[in-house]
Amino acid sequence: MSELIVYSESAELQRQTKDPRQIASLLKAIGVRFEQWQPDAPVKAGDSQDAILQAYRKDIDSIVKEQGFITVDVISLDKSNPDKDLLRQKFLSEHIHTEDEVRFFVAGCGLFYLHVADKVYSVLCEKGDLLSVPANTPHWFDLGPAPDLAAIRFFNNPEGWVAQYTGSAIADLFPKLDS
Fold first, then answer.
1. CA distance 33 to 48
2. Distance of CA 38 to the CA centre of its chain
3. What pTM was computed for the model?
4. Which residues contact 170 (CB under 8 A, 6 or more apart)?
5. CA 121 to chain centre
6. How confident is the model at residue 24 (pLDDT cuts 50, 70, 90)?
7. What's the mean pLDDT when you consider all of the chain?
8. Once rounded to an integer, what is the mean pLDDT over residues 117-124?
9. Alpha helical stretches, state H, 2-77
């Protein structure tokens, strides 16, 4: 079940909810889009990019048309992936993107942390969740030590995922997906 936990920057719990309407409302207040869709294609974590893109072509085309994305790819990992530890570390440091970061989770789960003003919003995204983080929003992502996720990623640049790391160690203060 999707969940939002709001912390102070010093990691003090301020609010927690699993209600999708409350999650969407609280995130909307900071400019973040959160929606729950009905993923109906039979895909699983670890499936190939081509298989997932084909299975969700209709949804992908709809989002691309709506927002003008030019690059779409998939992150699909299960615990057998030999690069899982390296990929986890890559995403765990606070960074920004110069474009919106849009993810549609079609299998499994992952944990986004959004650092906005003096708060950190921890968003557990699961199958069916669509999350759009505005450009230049400091954030990090935890796929966990035994990843189980497949998410379609949308970009406005041909290079795809390009991060600018902030150099902050704030991510070290917060619980990880395995905690």
1. 27
2. 17
3. 0.93
4. 9, 94, 115, 120
5. 12
6. very high
7. 93
8. 97
9. 20-28, 49-55, 57-67
Structural tokens at position 5: 């936990």
Give the whole-angstrom CA distance, residue 151 versus residue 153.
6
CA dist list (Å): 16 to 5, 12, 34, 65, 132: 4, 12, 16, 34, 20
Domain count, the chain: 1
Tell me the C-alpha distance between 160 and 62, whole Å. Answer: 19
CATH number of domain containing 153: 2.60.120.10
Q: What is the CA radius of gyration of the chain?
A: 15
d(CA 134, CA 179): 27
Cα separation, 85 vs 108, in Å, equals 17
Written as six digits, the tokens of 109 are 């789960």
User: Could you tell me the residue range of the domain that residue 124 belongs to?
Assistant: 3-159
Contact 21, 44 (CB under 8 A): no
- Determine the Cα–Cα distance for residues 158 and 146; give it in Å rounded to an integer: 30
